[in-house]
Amino acid sequence: MKIYRFLGMLLVVMLATSCNYLDVIPDNVGTIDYAFRNRNEAEKYLFTCYSTLQRMQYPQHNPSFTTSGEIVYPNDLRDNLGMDALGFNIIRGTQNANNPGLNYWDGEEKGLALFAAIRYCNTMIENVDKPIDLTESEKLRWIAEAKFLKAYYHFYLMRMYGPIPITDSNLPISSDENAVKVKRMPVDQVVEYIVGLLDEATPNLPLTITNQTTELGRITRVIALSVKADVLMTAASPLFNGNADYAGFTGKDGEMLFNTQVDQSKWVKAEEACLAAINLCEQQGLRLHTFVPPANIPSNLPDSLRQVLTLQTAITERWELNNELIWAINPVFGFGQQEFGMPRLNAGSTTNLIAQGTYAVPISQQELFYTDKGLPINEDRTWNYSNRFSIRTSQSKDRFYVHEGYETINAHFDREPRFYSSIGFDGGVWYGNGTFDPENAQYVQARGSASFAGPKDDIRINIAACWPKKIVNYLTVYERQMTWEPYRSPIIRLAGLYLWYAEAMNENGKPHAEVLEYVNRVRSRAGLPSVQEAWTNHSTQPTKFTTKDGLREIIHRERRIELAFEGNVGWDLRRWKELQEVLSRPMQGWDIYESQASNFYRPQLLFAPVFNQRDYLWPIKANNLIVNNNLVQNPLW
Asked: Does the keyword Signal apply (predicted)?
């Protein structure tokens, strides 16, 4: 770690990307006094505090998105948009302590310098009294926003590195070398500090954003309570609560950095925080999203397609029209991102060099989604699991999910609506892309190089022949030119908050009927029967939901399905200590160069993931341990 990482310093400006109020950050501001000489300059500095947050949400730079196993990417492929495989390659075994990928500690290798972002927040808090034309209410709000952002940056680092230094204030320039050699603090102290900041910030944040044109995306009380729930859910989970794997992990002074005894009170606090966030969300009118067809959608839209669009637009609908969004970030998928999740659908798109379609969904992720009975495919007594790769031709009754007359496999039939809203597969209907007649919807043709979506060269290739449809707005058009319909990428939405609450209640031993109320809200919106009905009537394990362990498995899977491809599941799998199990299985896709269905649908090994116990925490760059001898490395690195 550079010796001056935590020093107070002259303002360094970080430009934000493509967002109304964040586009006004000035270049080359000379001094702190200048930066806070009046209200306008101080507000620009506040937006500097936000700017790191805006850039953290690009999917390829998100540790949760790239290491979750939901998406795989061609090894070392770099396309003409500057997209690269660095983050995705971490699960191929490229991570190392000498030069860590996605290094958010130092701001290197596609990571952002979060300690620098924290320093900006401290500078904001320490100098906000200087502008004489700043009203008291504005000052209180801006301090609250800076405290929230400081808390969130600490939280992000904690999820990646575990015990981290707490940077509550900037050290003076005159600080000596020993003062800046900070040490890592125990995880429980870090959590306490983060929660304390959020509690301080919450009362002075607005309940809602009234001026959405200029302020949408700034922090509200609803966001703060929801993030507090996230922090406490993480702290209560097995990675951070009684993790015996880290017994003996101490600082240089011998202080234990991880607790090794499970503390049930952490789940109680998490449950209380989730309920408080839910209550405030519902008081402010938040509810699970349903699709309202715009004028260009035919009035005879079939119920099945309407259901799919409800689930798609829960992610891609504009924030002001989506009452489910609690917190979302500026439209990253609208700028050089949606095209990575979109297949070529017609002759015109095969000549488009912008749209690569390179985000590939491995077979294991496809098989995670439920059957139409709302059950795992290997637990549904009515679903032919053993013959799921057998060839089948789509009939008229299937035409709104699978193109009529198309040869595909059994695994693509009789699946839940979230499968069809989330996955673009060979033969699958892709409603939208400029075609809104449901009887003539476009569909994916992925078999062999001669097909529209099949491999064209070493750049325009999807190595699994399956796409994350969920992250593409149905109004985005892929022809000879791309016409993007941008949206804000969700960080927290109400469905995820409901599932947090259900998880916490289950861990606290609440009656399963109370727990399932919130799981079933999410399932009902997805067009599925209740957990009780599905398991009792159709499962090979009809009593699974009646036990704490069985219900935990159901809730975890529900989160992985509902929040797939949103950049959240990777954090879940880490805090649950389940990522090693998920990545113990080979990543497979279809035989993409074969044109005949019988040959195409043969699972092919893409690669064997590399994930060991040490990978639950990121390594600190080795050179930092030399510069600062108060730091210790994470275990096994």
From this structure: yes
